[in-house]
Structure formats: C-alpha cells, structure tokens
Design goal:
With about 180 residues, the chain is α/β, with parallel strands linked by helices. The chain has one domain: Response regulator (Rossmann fold). It is about 35% helix and about 10% strand. The chain contains six helices and four strands; from the N terminus they run βαβααβαβαα. It has a four-stranded parallel sheet with strand order 2-1-3-4, with helices on both faces. α1 crosses α6 and α2 packs across α6. The longest helix is centred in the last third of the chain and has 23 residues. The radius of gyration is 16 Å and the shape is globular.
C-alpha cells in the first residue's frame, strides 16, 4: 500500500518532471539468494533494459537467512525456470550473503523482500536497514501476501514462482521509477 506521500505509479514517460528514477539502488532479498530474489533481480533488470533505462538503476540481490552463503550455486531449478523465460544464467551463477556484504544494504534506496517474515528479520537483524523503505515484492506492487519459497517443491513450483514474479515486475519497475520519471533528461 502506498504511503500518503507516494503517488500512484504511472507508466514511464507519462510525465517529465523529474530527472532520474525515484529509487536509484534496489536490493532484493530472500532467504538464501538462490531462487526468488535471483529471479526478481534478473527479471527486473530485463524490464529496465527493455525500457532503455537499465543504466539508471542499480539492482542487487542477497540472502539474509543464517544459512545464506556467499558463493552457493543458484539452484538448477531457478536457472531452468529463468531459461524458460529467455533469461540465461550460467552454471557459475552464485549467491550473495548480506551478512558478508552490508555495503549492499548501505547503498540501497529501497529493499524488497519476498515475505513479511524476511522484512521483519531484515529490520531486526541488520542495523543498516533502519530508516530505509523495506517492502515485500507484493506490497511494492500494491498487493498483499508473500512469494512462497519453491525450495524442494519441484520444477513446477519454481515455474509458478517465476510466473508470479514476472507478473509483478512491471508494476515494481513503475514504482522504482516514480510517477514523474521521464527518459527525456
């Protein structure tokens, strides 16, 4: 749900009042950074690239769970689900542990979590989140609910999660850019 200071998102190019996106650095989090946040990161990058504005916004992702590890391989199911949507991650694609990379949180203008619990955990366990806007992916898209973890639930569940994230990404991109963003700088 948008705060009283936020305007309803419009498609980019509708208004030309601001030079630059509303948020220039986005951090997407989930438990281990091997599935949902990786999907959201790469789909959001593609969305911004297709709009011709990828260079205006930095997108990163990381895991926040105690078991998150730097260098863990992105799951094969994630890579296959993304490949089915024409996003190709190499076999060498690895995860990022936010505990080891607090600079990602420091640089972020907004943090997007996959679940309400991850949002709560981030605010409780990562002091760098204080004062930053933190939303779930669905909240940021002006919906409610969590993006369920597909871990150990089979390739069909990974596909469902990918489809759901993809559905939300255009609205997320609109909110990142802000209602008055224009490519005409």
């Amino acid at each position: 749900m948008a705060s009283k200071h936020e305007s309803k998102p419009k498609h980019y190019g509708e208004s030309a009042a601001r030079k630059g996106p509303r948020f220039r650095s986005v951090l997407i989090i989930c438990a281990a950074n091997t599935a949902r946040s990786v999907m959201a990161e790469h789909m959001l990058r593609r969305e911004l690239r297709e709009r011709g504005i990828e260079s205006h916004v930095t997108i990163a992702s990381a895991g926040i769970a105690p078991y998150a590890r730097d260098g863990a391989l992105v799951s094969l199911d994630t890579r296959l689900a993304l490949r089915d949507d024409n996003i190709h991650l190499g076999e060498e694609a690895t995860s990022v542990d936010l505990k080891r990379h607090p600079e990602l949180l420091e640089k972020a203008d907004v943090v997007i979590a996959m679940t309400d619990q991850q949002k709560i955990d981030l605010l409780a366990k990562f002091p760098g989140a204080d004062g930053k806007p933190v939303h779930t992916l669905r909240e940021f898209a002006e919906e409610s609910g969590d993006i369920e973890d597909p871990f150990e639930k089979g390739d069909e569940k990974f596909t469902e999660v990918r489809i759901e994230i993809k559905r939300l990404i255009p609205t997320v991109a609109d909110r990142i850019l802000g209602a008055d963003w224009s490519l005409d700088e």
